[in-house]
Amino acid sequence: MKLKITFVALFAFFFSSFAQDKSFDLLKEKTKTKILYDRVFGISNATQPKSKDLNSTYFLQVYHEIQRADFDNRLPKLEEIRKTATLASIKNQVPLAILITDFESISKENLDTKFTLNNSNQLALKKNTSIDFEAHSLNLIAPIVSKSKTNDVTFVLNSDLIFNTTSRVIATVYYSTENTIWQKIEQNQPFKVNFSAIENQELALKIQFTNGTSIIQSISLEKNNSYLAKNGLVTSSPMLASTITATIPYQGFGETAPALGQGDFEIFLDNLDGVLDKPIILIDGFDPGDTRNSTAIYQSLNYGTNQNFADDLRNQGFDIVILNFPNYTIPGTTTVIDGGADFIQRNAFTLVQLLNQINAQKVGVEKNVVIGPSMGGLISRYALRYMEMNNLNHDTRLYISFDAPHQGANVPIGFQHLFNYMAYGPLGNAAVQPVVDGLIKSAAARQMLVDHYEGHLQTGSAFEFNTAAATLLPTGAPNFRTAFQNELNTMGFPTLTRNVSIANGAGNGTMNYTPDFEVMNHTFNVTTSQRAIINLRFTPAANQTNQVSRFRGQQLVIAFWLTGYESAASSKSPTFTSGLDSAPGGRFDMTSFAGSLGTDPILTEFFDNLNADYFTFIPTWSSMAISGTNNLYAPVTASSVSPFVASSVPPINENHITFNTQNVAFALNEILNPPLTISNPELESIWVKNPFNNTIEINSNYALENVNITLTDMLGKRIYKINKQNITGSYTIPVSLNQGIYLLNIDNGKQNITKKLVKN
After folding, report:
1. For residues 536 and 519, is the Cβ–Cβ distance under 8 A?
2. Which residue has the higher pLDDT, 394 or 697?
3. C-alpha 372, offset from chain centre
4. Which domains does the chain have, with CATH numbers?
5. Does the global pTM surpass 0.85?
6. By Cβ atoms counted within 10 A, which residue in 240, 284, 487, 724 is the most buried?
7. Which one, of 59, 51, 50, lies nearest residue 146 by Cα?
8. Residue 676 — φ and ψ, nearest 5°?
9. Are 28 and 34 in contact (CB under 8 A)?
10. Highest mean pLDDT, choosing among 35-44, 198-207, 313-322
11. Strand partners, 97
12. Rounded-to-integer distance, Cα 684 and Cα 714, Å
């Protein structure tokens, strides 16, 4: 009977112990430190602290646990620490933080023999029983940002980042690099360390206490390779690298006042005359935290073997202008704007200002070309159309949308539920919180995601999903998604530009895995007595419902694994289409994403045990802005209704924003060979698969009658000709040609259009 009672008591205790509630209140006065580690789920295992290779992930997790375990709430919440880190990052500084604390925990032996649960489910000592809690000490110093943007790192130890709940008094703090002596760190005084000659960004730190004792630890930083791309990878330096501020303010939902957007831009002049006379403006996409600068964006235009799209254009006499959206503070405030994930409208107004400046600065009469990859496609579309609607001259002839989410983007709702629960549920994983706050909860993500976890939350809960059947259909973020899409739809597309599209999603209906695909079924052994079981699935087939996410936290109690807490989410697909996760579309590469998250062991194990390497990020239906159907799986055909007059659509799904010979050839053809200004939409609507193999595919949204088709090589030699041909939807020309460039001319007797084609 005693065993049974103990078992039940332990189960009840475990069930209540992962939430920071009143279960432990009776023990507060029994502790010496007023910090009881059992109040939280100890992911960091702070009872056995590290002393080597301390990084921001480890420090912040330990801090987060100690802060929540403190009965007296003496430490600021983790959100305040992150704000400090963000402000420092804007100054290109790496802030150091110190945590000096003592705390206690309950041993398993004492839990079994000396504690009981009262009627209020509170843990209490048995009558006439005393206990000595297990005592622990922490003396930690570490950075609170994970990456440096350069090898020349500026550190700073801010006095407001020194946290001490003990009587130990810090006398001095020192640092040392490889083979150097200890150097004193002055509080609030930045100091530089050059890691260029050091293989790893590691630093030794020493805390000296007034009682004569000291601790020595080592910290590590990761190099932000995207920013370091600026160091020597681009052979030509930009003519101008400058910041720009919008003149049109924007106030987003939830903001107390309008603010002006800011951007960084760099101009890479052409390789012919070196004069800014033929601008091609490239707008950066979704980039939370500003992980890449303009020069790194330039490098992302690589394709094929040692080829670069920007280099190709500069060799043709075009000038490349790259607009990046950095982190910045609103003047006169400490409010931080994450430009790479900010409201799309505010970034669009920054582009408006850049277009005005480029138009005033450029030489000659050549009109601009604007290229918008990913979210940059929405920013570009909004800016160009806004200028037209407000009688502002954008002086742009061509708008290229590159896998942009004109009808929304997708992150699996199961992933969103899981990450949010891990971050803000009982687990309190500090490493996952930036994924939620910086990515999923950013203003831009809220505007773009077709299905957003905030639309499914139970009233009053920050992490539990509503289980009612009526709440399971895809739902955008309240006050963000629908408002933005309605505004975009009302504005439409630019009318004074030629609008073309590049998609990375397949046009033939090829899926990314299948609906209801099992993405994960894995057990995470956090400790020998604690584990988490995670199940993930893609959204289901049309008109079906499935469980897309389930998280179970378990404790080993008397040889039994007991589930202490659990959370799950289900999803239902509409009757007219299967779920977003596996639809044809540009893929989100989870392997690359995992590499950007640092070295948190739980996240590493998570991505290592996924059964899928990618999911649908930008459905082809969205990148092509197809109307007339809501079936995300419908193939793109000549009858598909799209606002783009020409498109490059691959036969297979590619990773989002993949440059290859096919879409580069398409873009070059559009830029180098602008069609004559024509009035009949029949010819304007023609798009040709480019490059081609053994067939030339001509497609049109219109029925073409009595057209003459001629194919020649670059020397003018006629290869194919047919007169008075009727084309309904599509027309195929079988050819057997050598590799090279060819010209396709289509003439309807009134006007003609010529396309430059590339044979693979």
Report:
1. yes
2. 394
3. 17
4. 2-223 (no CATH), 227-403 (3.40.50), 413-488+511-583 (no CATH), 675-759 (2.60.40.3080)
5. no
6. 284
7. 59
8. -60, 150
9. yes
10. 313-322
11. 142
12. 23
